[in-house]
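Supplementary Methods S3. Complex input for the nicotinamide-adenine-dinucleotide-bound model.
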Amino acid sequence: MNAKIAVLAGDGVGREIVPEAVKVLKVVAERHGHTFEFIPGNVGGHAIDKVGVPLPAETLAIAKHSDAVLLGAVGGPKWEGLEYSLRPERALLGLREQLGLYANLRPAKLYPMLADASTLRRDVIEGIDMLVIRELTGGIYFGKPKGIEPLPGGGERGFNTEVYTTEEIRRIAVVAFDAARKRRKKVTSVDKANVLESSELWRRVVTDVHRGYPDVALSHIYVDNCAMQLVRNPRQFDVLLCNNIFGDILSDEAAMLTGSIGMLPSASVGAKVGLFEPIHGSAPDIAGKNIANPIATIASAAMMLSYAFQLDKEAAAIEQAIVKTLELGFRTKDIHAEGMQLVGTVEMGDAIVRNLPS
Ligand SMILES: NC(=O)c1ccc[n+]([C@@H]2O[C@H](COP(=O)([O-])OP(=O)(O)OC[C@H]3O[C@@H](n4cnc5c(N)ncnc54)[C@H](O)[C@@H]3O)[C@@H](O)[C@H]2O)c1
Ligand SMILES: CC(C)[C@H](C(=O)O)[C@@H](O)C(=O)O
Ligand SMILES: [Mg+2]
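Predicted complex, serialized as structure tokens:
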């Protein structure tokens, strides 16, 4: 097949890990007879430095006219002082909104050979295989009113609004139940329905959508309990259905169960063009040192092949190469353990390319 892939490396480690994923995609395309055209675009702090805005119109056009977007990460201390509307993170929110990416899929599974990299006991984490489904274009991230305003008596008031409509909840619930059907047929819906009206509606609509999925088990859990259960007994979860902010927080927590945030990929879908990116950020503390783990991004490229292009065999080949590379003992610093071979970002990418099935 012929496909156009927008490549938005962004900031910090984004500029190191994205080239590794592109390297893998190029070899996969060559071996399987596909033509991928890679179109680079400026995004985030990098775009601010070059053209003054985090999401230039040209970048948005590149994304809209491609078949899929591969993104690294945006943000970093250099741009933290900027006014909110001009910050690198706005680019990501803009892309999600403009591309209609309301469903964010974040699979967290433990590669058995990485059990020692996790901060939790092996018997607690062994067999973890969950899918966090995060609503991505609604909730407190986008709700209005929002802002910071002066108070008459002095001081200021900062405010955001958590808001969900029936339709926004319905469509993400459908994604979760459909996904569960292809897995262990269990959805746990996360909310704070004991306190928040938006969560009360969330619970009601999810329960209603569930009526169409009698073969899938549904349970509801309060987010605070869920955060606790994730470290107490993570294996109980199959599909975790979350709103925007709860999904953001819980997926970072789920990442750490599997050894490192450098391992977790994601797919953001909903309309025509999907966006694929690791769940982690620009990791300024390790950027530019060739130590970032590129696996989350390479696995995101695999998700792109399967979700955007239905190239399941090619996606499985990348998965297989990741597993083999880990089995052979290659480890970046974040997942390193005694007796394993410590490698850098580029060397990990090279090893995964070498281990692609021919
Ligand atoms: N999708 C995105 O673009 C995205 C996501 C999260 C945060 N951010 C932005 O990134 C910047 C830094 O945020 P943060 O420090 O809170 O989160 P972060 O995810 O960048 O880093 C958190 C920790 O995880 C480590 N880490 C992250 N990715 C890693 C990798 N591939 N390999 C090894 N270790 C890795 C980092 O070194 C750091 O210690 C901020 O500007 C934030 O807004 C962007
Ligand atoms: C950088 C930020 C806007 C983003 C989010 O909160 O969605 C990030 O944390 C993520 O998880 O993709
Ligand atoms: Mg996050």
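The first helix runs from residue 14 to 32. The two ends are 19 Å apart (CA to CA).
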